[in-house]
Amino acid sequence: MAVELPDNVLVTRLDALANWCRKNSLWPMPFATACCGIELMATGASRHDIARFGAEVFRFSPRQCDLMIVAGRVVMKMLPVLQRIWQQMHEPKWCISMGACASTGGVFDTYAVVQGIDRFIPVDMYVPGCPPRPEQLIQAIIDLQEQIQRGKGIVSQPGPVDTPKRALLELPVLPVLPAAMGGLPHGAPAVVQQGGQSRGV
Amino acid sequence: MACDAQSPTQPATDTSCPQVVAALGARFDDIQASEFRGQTRVVVPRDSFLAVMRFLRDEQQFDMLVDITCVDYLHYRGAEHRFGLVYLLLGTRHGKRLTVRVYLDEPDLVVPSVVSLWRAADWLEREVWDMFGIRFEGHPNLRRILLPEEFTAHPLRKDYPLQGRGERHNFPVLRRGAS
Predict the structure, then answer these.
(1) Class of domain A27-150
(2) Fewest CB atoms less than 10 Å from the CB: which of A36, A129, A174, A191?
(3) pTM of the model
(4) Could you tell me if residue B5 is inside a domain?
(5) A123 Cβ under 8 Å from any chain B Cβ
(6) In chain A, residues 133-162 whose CB comes closer than 8 Å to chain B
(7) Measured between CA atoms, how close is A137 to chain B, in angstroms?
């Protein structure tokens, strides 16, 4: 190489640099609906201190966040709110499903509780536990940081192809729903795809 | 006062009120009363229900409506009626409690509203409507209170499946990169 680099200059890919910046300054959106929220607060408090991983700036405005942490069960009345908040977050954004209820519905296998938020919004990390320890959430953030570092970076690209989740494929086909239950609830924007109509019981 | 006055410092263990039952029996027909462990319960026919409640409030000093709830007796052993409405009354002056019950059968699931007697009945009756689908005639604002408004079923009925009829899956699916 013809050019001599000074000692304090590092050559890297722009994507790697952007990813490195992003992964070390995640701003979580705390969507805490149940007891997992208490563990989420403990994770942010001094004993566990996710400031060590650059994710301590909890913001309650989705416009300022890039990491949604869904902590707790999500009922069907809350899901349109969750989806709206997710859409209000700017790209790039990530989602951690914290705890058994957010991931699968947990013990709440009832008419009112959504059986896993990954049926309706994308999820990057699942944290098992009921509720998970703060260490588990921190591990999820570390894993997510690795995933972000491996990501595509700032190159404009369509999202990854989203194949149907296995759990959705296993559902039995639903008989016809009442007309009042159809349609996009709560004025959901038109960019979303209409799913769910034929989802099972 | 119909019931014996009680010192407010004494714990009210015995809340039964036989005098009220006697007064009710003298005034109305078809009142069935029973007592269990110091708690009095009366079963009232629907036709005289509103008059009974007004009598209890105005002349028996039951000035507080504690709760309204409902029981679905579908497939219940020995049950003669489908639904049993339960009204829990308390007289804050005399410390007595009374349980008033009304039985209902399909398809005529209508009962007079008591919002005009106790304002507390507003949300309680909306909850019973939401969960059991019993209409309260004369309620000023009988809408769902817990479930979303587009919900069509009444999920605490025993013939409603616990896991619902697909309501919890009936949402648009957001995918990454779509917005």
Answers:
(1) alpha beta
(2) A191
(3) 0.76
(4) no
(5) no
(6) 158-160, 162
(7) 22
